[in-house]
Design a protein that fits this description.
mainly beta, 11-stranded mixed sheet
Length: about 450
């Protein structure tokens, strides 16, 4: 069949398909349709009569936008529409204050997509709240606005305490105003100008000049601040645990709330117990420690030095009597601790906007994380924990640094610290260990009820 015949056939089929059809429905022409009806285009933004076909209509005002970086590895975004809000900086404490503008992230009604999620907040008119402004220099004032992405949990179309905070940006939006229509030379020299600017928050505390970029016409995804989703809590994970010590089979490990080491025992002080044992292997990974779910609410308290709510735990290994619970006065015998690494939980529900911003700036993740007491810094689970001898908890008192003998103890006596501390397994009471039989003969009787364990051959 020739090409002409194909074209004729296709034309005929097209006509035949139209002939038996019903008349098109009544309705207004959709701006890019060739016929009546199809009124649900995403880009139908100029209807002159209602209804507006549920299409997105660009709001009036200057667009201030950028991208939200998100990966599923960051955690699961709670249910609800994702919004980005601009919060005025409180000049007194330079902290996020009132939300001035916000907008829903298009396409994020049910959560974020992996990769770049474009956000745009439209500012209709110049900022008018005088309390937002503070002197920036001679003859000009500036208002700074923090950016936060959050889940509108109560569907109120704005932020309310308790709405999950997803992340913030280290760049702020700054609006500069002046009675002089010309921007001050000192501001222009910094890269800024009248109207909207992008300001690097981290540069504001430097001794040098702040980093400012003039954006009088607004921003978009290619030149606006990037928001990072870094405040989703880690509620579960796996921590590799290693040790050079002999941890006999029949042992266990778990997270002990630090209150127990201060003499206070709270309910459910032991979390995530797990059976362990490395046989005769030393220096290898002992176990993959599974962390699941948040701690009990009763464990949460203000964390000293951080201003955050949470809890600390110390990984502790013991010879277990079979119940995966540590009870003093039984065969449960302490073997090793995970010092100096602590398991730390930071409660995201109690975060203020100020705490959320600082947590992201200083790299404090929400939920579970490891905290290195020597580095005084959070560490990812992949860093792992090394189980050490109980003597690692020694506070350094007494004779503990002589090669042999008593150096200068406040209390008399030689602490014998030239000798190595006891192997943890040697601290287990003999009556708690399983009975031993003849189990290492090179040949012979391997099931004696008596401990005939050294036959060279035979019984």
């Amino acid at each position: 069949m020739t090409r002409l015949h194909w074209l004729a056939l296709l034309t005929l089929l097209g006509l035949l398909l139209v002939i038996p059809g019903c008349p098109p429905p009544e309705g207004n022409l959709d701006d890019d349709d060739t016929s009546d009806g199809d009124d649900d285009d995403d880009d139908d933004d100029d209807d002159t009569t209602p209804p507006d076909d549920d299409d997105f209509t660009i709001p009036p005002g200057i667009p201030l936008g950028g991208v939200i970086e998100y990966s599923p590895a960051d955690g699961e975004v709670p249910a609800g529409a994702v919004r980005v809000g601009l919060f005025a900086a409180d000049p007194e404490g330079f902290a996020p204050g009132e939300e001035r503008w916000s907008n829903e992230v298009v396409g994020a009604e049910g959560g974020l997509l992996g990769g770049d999620n474009i956000y745009t907040v439209y500012v209709d008119g110049d900022p008018e709240e005088d309390e937002d402004f503070f002197p920036g220099g001679l003859g000009w004032e500036v208002a700074l606005y923090f950016l936060f992405a959050y889940v509108d949990g109560d569907a109120s179309d704005d932020y309310n305490p308790g709405d999950p905070i997803l992340g913030s940006s280290t760049d702020l939006f700054g609006f500069v105003r002046s009675d002089n229509p010309e921007a001050p030379d000192e501001l222009v020299a910094l890269g800024g100008g009248l109207g909207w600017n992008v300001v690097d928050y981290l540069s504001l505390g430097d001794d040098g000049e702040p980093d400012i970029t003039h954006r009088p016409d607004g921003t978009n995804s290619s030149n606006g601040p990037e928001l990072s989703v870094e405040l989703l809590p880690q509620t579960s994970g796996t921590i590799p645990v290693s040790t050079s010590l002999f941890i006999p089979n029949g042992s266990a490990m778990g997270a002990f709330h630090l209150s127990i080491f201060g003499g206070e025992v709270i309910d459910d002080f032991l979390q995530f117990p797990q059976a362990v044992g490395n046989g005769e292997l030393r220096g290898d990974t002992l176990a993959e420690w599974n962390i699941t779910g948040p701690p009990p609410a009763a464990h949460l308290a203000p964390l000293e030095g951080f201003g955050l709510n949470g809890a600390y735990y110390l990984l502790f290994a013991w010879y277990d009597d079979g119940d995966l619970d540590y009870i003093q006065g039984t065969c449960d015998t302490p073997l090793a601790v995970g010092f100096p690494s602590l398991l730390m939980y930071i409660d995201p529900a109690a975060l203020t906007l100020q705490q959320a911003f600082q947590s992201q700036i200083f790299g404090f993740p929400m939920g579970w994380t490891l905290f290195d007491q020597e580095l005084e810094a959070p560490r990812p689970f992949t860093t792992g924990i090394q189980l050490e001898h109980l003597s690692s908890l020694d506070d350094g008192g007494g004779d503990d640094d002589d090669s042999a003998g008593d150096d200068d103890d406040s209390s008399a006596g030689d602490d014998d610290d030239s000798a190595a501390p006891l192997d943890p397994v040697d601290t287990i009471p003999a009556e708690c260990l399983p009975p031993s039989g003849d189990d290492d003969d090179s040949a012979g009787d391997d099931d004696d009820s008596a401990d005939d364990d050294d036959d060279s051959a035979g019984d």
